[in-house]
Amino acid sequence: AAAVKAAAAVKAAVEAAVEEAVAVATREAAAAGRAEAEAEARRELAQLAAQVSQAEAELAALAPQHAKLSDEAATLKAEEERASAKLQQLYKRETTASQFSSKAARDKALQKEAAKERASLEKKEKQAAALEAQLRTDKSEAGKSEEEAQAARARLAEHRKREDAARKRVAAQRAEHSALTDRRKGLWRKEQQLGESTRGSVAELDKAQRTLQQSMSRSLWEAVRAVERIAAEKKIGGVYGMLIELFDVDEKFFTAVETAAANQLFHVVVDTDETAARMLKELQQANAGRVTFMPLNRLRPQDGPQYPDSEDVIPMVKKLKFEERFKPAFRQIFRKHLIVRDLDVGSRFSKSHDLDCVTLEGDSVNRKGALSGGYTDLRRSRLRAQLDRLRLREALAASEAELAAVVGEGETLDAEVTRVLSDMREAEAEQRKAAADAEQESLELPAAAPSTARRAVDAQKEKALAALRSAAEADRRRLEAIEGELASAFEAELSSGELKQREGLQAEVKRLSQRRVKAERDAAKAEQQRGRLEGDLRDNLQQRQQELQRTLDEQTEEERRASTGGAVDPAAAQQRLAATAAELESAHKGLGEKRVEERRLREELEQAKGKLAAERTAQQEEAKELDKMLARRGVLQSKAQEFADCIRRLGSLPKESFDESRRALSSKQLMGEIEQCNKELQKLGHVNKKALDQFQSFNEQRDKLIDRRDEVEKAEESIRSLIEHLDLKKDEATLPRHLLDTS
C-alpha cells in the first residue's frame, strides 16, 4: 500500500510537470506566433517603406517632365493663339473693307470694339492678379505646412525610433526574464527534491538513532544525550563523545567488536579527569542519569600482551582505526581481545595466552574458560547503526549545504529577476510613451501636411490663372490688332503682302496645332501616370503602411498587457519551444514508466492481497481443524478417564499389562482387545477380586524379596572374599617370612 501511494504521488508529480510543460509550450508557441507575426509585419512594413520611397522618387522624377510637357503645350498653345489671332485679324480686315464705306465709319466701329476689348482685358488682368495673389498666399501657407509636416514627420520618425529601441530592450529583457524564470523553476524543483531528500535522510537518521537507542538502556541513552547537550550548551571542551563514535572498523568485524566491548562502546571519552568531574557534577545537578567517563590523562593500559603468532587469530585492536590521541582508551578495552577462526582455536589460545577470544559470529571464550554464543540479529547491530548515523549525518549535512546553496542561488536569482522586471517596466513605460507620442504625431500629421484635395484645388487655380493669362494675352493682341488697324489706311482689299502673310499664318497655325495636340497628349499621359502613382501611393501603400503600423501598435499594447514571460525573439522562442517539447517527451516517457511501475506494484498488491486471503482462509480452516481436534481430544480424555476408572475397579494389574508393544496398535485394534477383555471379565463375574489383588501383590513382594536375597548372597560372597584378602595381608605383615613359606 505504501509503495502504491508513493507511485501515486510520483504519478501526480509527473502529471503536474507534464501540465506545466504543456502550459509552457503553449505560451512559448503563442509567443513565437506573435513574434513571427510581428516580424512578418515589420518586414512588410519595411517593404512598403521601400515601395513608398520608390513611388515618391518616381513622382519626384516625373514632376519636372510633366511640368516641361505642360509648359511646352502652353507655349505652343499661346503661339497658336497668337497666329490664329493674326489670321483672324486679316480675315476681319478683309470683311471690314466690304462692310464700311468710309474710314470714319470703320474707325468708329473699331474704337467701340477696342473699348470692349480694353474692358475685358482689364477685368481678366484683375482676376488674374487676384488669383495669382491667392496662389502666392496658398503656396506660402503650403510651404509652411510642408515645413511643419516635415518637422512632424521627423518627430514621428524619432518617436518610432525610440519606440523600436524600447521594444528591442523589452524583448531582450523578456528573454532574460524568461531564462531567469526557467532557471528559478529548475532551482525550485531542485530545492523540492533536496527538501524531500533531506526529510528522507532525517527520517532514516531517526531510525538509525532509534536502533542505537534500543541497543542500550533508556537511562543510559538519556544520560549520553544529556552529556552531548550539556557540553554544547555550557561550551565544555574536551568531551569527544562515545567510544563507538571515535573509531572505524570493517563491517565483517562488527559482531566480534560488539561482543568484546559490549556496553563499554557507550563510555564517553574525555581529555582529563577534571572534564569528567565537571560533567559528572552537571549530570548530578540535571538528574540526567549515569555515564562512565574515560579521561585520557588517567588511562594507563599495560604494555603487551604478547599476541600469538598464528594465522588463525587477529589482535582486535589492530583492526580498529582511530586517532592516535584515543589510543589509551581503545587499548584499555580491546588490548586483551583476539579475533579467532572458531571456538576451538579460541579455547586453545585463551588458556595459553590469557586472552579473551571472539569469533566473527560473536561466540566468545574468556580467559576463565567460560563460553558464550548463540544467534545474533545483525539488523540490531550497534556499530551498523552508528555507521548509518555517521553516513546519514554526512549525507544530511551535504544535503543541507546543497539546499542552502540552492536557496542562496534562488535568492540571488530572485533579486536578478526583480531587477530585470524593474528594467523591463521602465523600458515598457518608455515604449508606451514613445508609442503615445508617435500616435499623437500621426494624428496631427494629416492636418499639417497638404492634402491631395488641396493640391488638386491649387492645380485647378493654376490652370485657371494660366487660362486667364492666355485670354488676357489674346485680348491684348486683339486690342493691338484693332489699334493697328485704326492707324492703318482704309483699303477695300488686302494687299499682296497681307495675302502672303495670311497663307503663312494658316500653315503656321496648322503646324502649331499639330505640335500642341502632341504636346498636350504627352502632358496628359504624364499627368495620368502621375495620378496613377499618387493614387497608388495614397490609396494603397500609405494606407497599408498605416494599417500595419496600427497593428504593430496594437500587438505592442497586447504584449505590454500580457504576461512578462516569453521571449519575443522567434529564434529563441523556437529553441525554447524545442527544449520544452523535449522535456515534455521526457516527462511523458517518465510518466509511462511510472504507470508501468504503478501497474506492477498494483499487481504485486493484488497478489499480496490474494496470498493474505489464502492465508486467512487456511488459518480459518486450521482453526476449524483445531476445534475439531480439541473436541476429539476432550472425547479421548473422557474415554481415557473412563478406562482409568475401569482399571481402578479391576485392581492391581500385572506388569505384562503395561507392555509397550501395544503402543504400535491402532485404535480399532485396541478397541477390539478392550471388547475381548470385557467379555472375559464378564465370565469372571463371581471371582473375589480382592483376593486376586492380594495374590498379585504377594507375588510382587515375593519377586522383590527373591531379588533382595540374591543381592544379599552376592554381597555376602564379596564380603567373605574381602575378609580373606585382608587376613592374608595381615599375616604377611605380622608373621616371619619362613613361617609364611611353611604355611
Explain how this protein is built.
The model is unreliable at 1-6 and 563-568 (pLDDT under 50). The chain starts with a helix and ends with a helix. The protein is elongated. It has helices spanning 2-99, 103-214, 218-234, 254-261, 273-286, 327-334, 343-353, 382-448, 452-487, 496-561, 570-650, 667-683, 689-734, 737-742; strands spanning 239-242, 247-248, 268-270, 293-295, 313-315, 321-322, 337-340, 356-359, 364-365, 371-372. Strands 5-7-8-9-10 form a 5-stranded mixed beta sheet, sandwiched between helices. It has a 3-stranded mixed beta sheet with strand order 1-3-4, covered by helices on one side. Strands 2-6 form a two-stranded antiparallel sheet. Strand 7 (337-340), helix 7 and strand 8 (356-359) form a beta-alpha-beta unit. By secondary structure, it is mainly α. The longest helix has 112 residues, at 103-214. Helices cover 79% and strands 4% of the residues.
Summarize this, please?
The protein has helices spanning 2-99, 103-214, 218-234, 254-261, 273-286, 327-334, 343-353, 382-448, 452-487, 496-561, 570-650, 667-683, 689-734, 737-742; strands at 239-242, 247-248, 268-270, 293-295, 313-315, 321-322, 337-340, 356-359, 364-365, 371-372. It is mainly alpha-helical.
Please supply descriptive tags for the structure shown above.
743 residues; elongated; disordered N terminus; 10 strands; three-stranded mixed beta sheet; five-stranded mixed beta sheet
